[in-house]
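User: Predict the full complex structure for these chains.
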Amino acid sequence: MTWESVIGLEIHVQLATKSKLFTAAPVGYDAEVNALVDPVVLGMPGVLPVINREAVTMAMKVGLALGCTINPTSVFARKHYFYPDLPKGYQISQFEAPICTGGALWADVNGEERLFELTRIHMEEDAGKTVHDASRGCSFVDYNRAGVPLIETVSEPCMRSAEEAVAYMKALFQIVRALGVCRGNMEEGNFRCDANVSVRPLGEERLGTKVELKNINSFRFVGRGIAHEVERQIAVIEGGGEIRQETRLWDDAAGVTRTMRTKEEAHDYRYFPDPDLMPLRIDSAWIDAVRQSLPELPRERRARFERDLGLGSYDADVLTQSSARADYFESVYASVGDAKLVANWIQGELLAQLNREGLEIESSPLSADKLATLLTLISKGKLSGKQAKACFQAMFKEGISADVWMKNHGGQITDAAEIDRIVLTVLDDNPDQVAQYLGGKEKLMGFFVGRVMAATKGRANPASVNASIKRLMKERM
Amino acid sequence: MSEINLDASASELLRAMDAGELSCLELTQESLARIDALDASMNAWLHIEGEGALAQAAELDARRSAGESLGPLAGLPIGVKDMICTAGMPTTAASKMLEHFVPPYDATVVRRLKDADAIILGKLNMDEFAMGSSNERSAFGPVRNPWSPERIPGGSSGGSAAALAAGTCALSLGTDTGGSIRQPASLCGVVGVKPTYGRVSRYGAIAFASSLDQVGPMARSVEDAARLLDVLSGHDPLDSTSIPAPGCDTLSTLKNSIAGLRVGVPSEYFSEGIEQEVDSAVRAALETLKSLGCDIVDVSLPHTPYAVAAYYILATAEASSNLARYDGVAYGHRSAEAAPLDAMISATRAEGFGPEVTRRLLLGTYALSSGYYDAYYLQAQKVRTLVANDFRDAFKRCDIIVGPTSPLAAIGLGERTSDPLQMYLMDVYTIPSNLAGLPCASMPCGFDDKGLPIGLQLIAPSMGEATLMRLAHSYEEASAWRGERPDLETLKKAGPPPGARKPRSQGEGA
Amino acid sequence: MDIEAVARLARIRLDAEESARYAKELKGVLGLMETLGELDLSEVEPTRHVILTETPFREDVSGPTLSRDQAMVNAPASDGESFIVPKVV
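Assistant: Here is the predicted structure of the three-chain assembly.
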């Protein structure tokens, strides 16, 4: 029996607004427990919601970036359930009339680009956090997160493997960060993934019973969790059992999914339109304004780097992994003008150094401007390759400017007469090797080049040295 | 100290204070003294802000002497229905669930009262969570009707109406979802106004039914109510259902002539079940309006019989949602039942809510539950459209609709608490204007042979408060009822009603 | 109406006597609610909002918060930092 896995992802994205979705209490991640609350957040008697315009704009950005239909009217609905971190006993969400419908996302699956469809995107408020303390038999509730704006993106059940799911998740992550609507810190809970997983015999049209996998909040957990769950389901069915519709949690340490010990039966959320809120109306002028304001998305940028700057797909991919990185590249490129040179240095030297020090490019001690000065010197031949590497290290670690370094260490030696003079000295000092070379041991070129480099402290231009040695050797023949 | 007439209108008291005949402090002291004398029997005041009120009154007198101009309600002692949040002052919704609750915020309407220099004397008793028509559903005991202490004052704003009728405050705030300002106003012989839905902010008014609730003024004269309405109304950015318009200005056109206004009389509001004397009083009022130059026109509101059913579906559904927050977690009552969480929540809600609230929560939860939303809630919203259309059609032929507020005058305490359906059907004349969101009022139009007040209900088109109050004022001037006041001696002697108790303040034992 | 199921959904504990009593009391009201079935409402639009205005928005500016003391002043149980509730299960 060949099995097919059917996967859909529901991803909650926290929007990077300053204030909460329905009240002015601030959004923050470093605050003390219960410091970011007001009566509306706490759901106190008599309070009312008023919607944050910026949160709507951010939701629209995501919708437009994914090619969704932005619905001119959408409705907020109350979703009822009882839980300590849900102050009102209901969450303000959207049900029958979400802000966006449709949409699709390109994702790179093992080098191949595939298109995944979405069902909808809707807006809702986040809940607070409950921390359970089993030893004391109680739980602690913090409402700082309650009321933070979320969008929930719902994909069609169109993924057929854990790899596809991870690819989709990564692509969406990249987009929301590039749009500036999400801080992108998964530990903070900015980007949370639930998966709906089912299996069916290949060729079967009906869907199998789906299991919801919750809180798989890293790319790794998503991949491993889904893969395991698929295997588990297949094993159950092949063993003659039935899949129970339920919610399971991924336990990465044990490598298994477990039934979530929830309160129980399927929820009856008693959805109805929130009478405290007017329908959300979005006119075409607003949509157009948001559309104009969209930045270039990662996929478009990658394509442009390949098409217009002549970069290979690997380089283009590495450089557009984040907006910050792509921005850095473009800034250096604008001054230097040699895309391949800039790409090599960023990937080769800069990213490697940043990696060694555990830094992101946003916190690079070497700014794009400064790197540009160095690369300009290189492209003009003022510094040799070897020198450039040393200069780079000094600039990165000590903050020295390229000009100062060059002043202290001297620039590249390219003058033919000077190089000849040094080469002659080396040849005179090493008669045996000269004889061997003239006798046919051409590999000794490296020896002579090395001596010249040592004598010039790496400043001599290697190509000129090579040419000079060859010419002067010829004269000795 | 001059003879202070606590039963005078607020306008008269303002004039007297302005003229230096009366100080704010004296007025507040006298009001507190009368509360002291009467409230053990009346049971209208759940919380009295004695010290604070006296201090504020003294400060207002000082400011007045210093030549400062004061707000439009300066020095007037006001009672606030305990459904409305007052910062630092207990706000219980007359429920055990919130018996110890002290909000750290003011409702917008309370802020406006404070900005107008009114003196908030305290919080008024009501039916628990505004669910009731008799003020017999309070966790702190019923309120006695000052006109006849063995009778109900009406509800749910029973305390607001009684306190006013007894002269213990100059003005009061009530809330109206299905008639809860108008009906007690009618039974207690005072004026009560429910504004157009969205005219007065709901922020800080504890929610019962979000699409129906409105806060409104209650007073002893139409002019007083107009004055208070003008202060309370106007757009509030904290309330998304607030109409984006400035406040009413009903005071400036109050005394204009009403000659030529067409008064619509709905046949459905004179159905069986209406007491003979109520019918006669209302008909007499119509004659008075005719003599003032109004045209009396017959109109029909054919969907009236379905309004009560639609209301009880919508209101209970929204209430079940609005009261889901009372779970003992972050505020309010929490059951001593320790664990687990679900058991604590269920026990908390069973202990905190009285039987009427419980009934309505069950109904409302049922109406919203899976499979029933279309059958009940959606259907009720459609009936709402039909009721609103009835009014729209009627208002093509008239300018104001006039009829009785309640089919009955005040019934006895305990007389009709057994059958919820019977109580619900008594709201038949007030409910439709809540469903349609229209401005409406009740005002005295006579007494029955037992001396019990009868109320006249006026309903205007949406945003028609100015016309509403103008007609009400003219009728009031032409009628004899304004001067009538209850004999408070009988009230004083009645003693506490059965079940009366004061909410325990924070820190006191359970 | 299955009173027990509804009470469970509403998280209100009812004993057997209360369940029976409420079931009886609500019978009449439920009958009242059913009367809407007499009307043909197929062509009628539901009233979602009795007054419909443009969507009111709030600009994204952070506003005042409650101090922890204020937030916790009515808390049934807290340690001054968090709200404390009985264990969930």
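Residues 6 and 65 of chain C are 37 Å apart (CA to CA).
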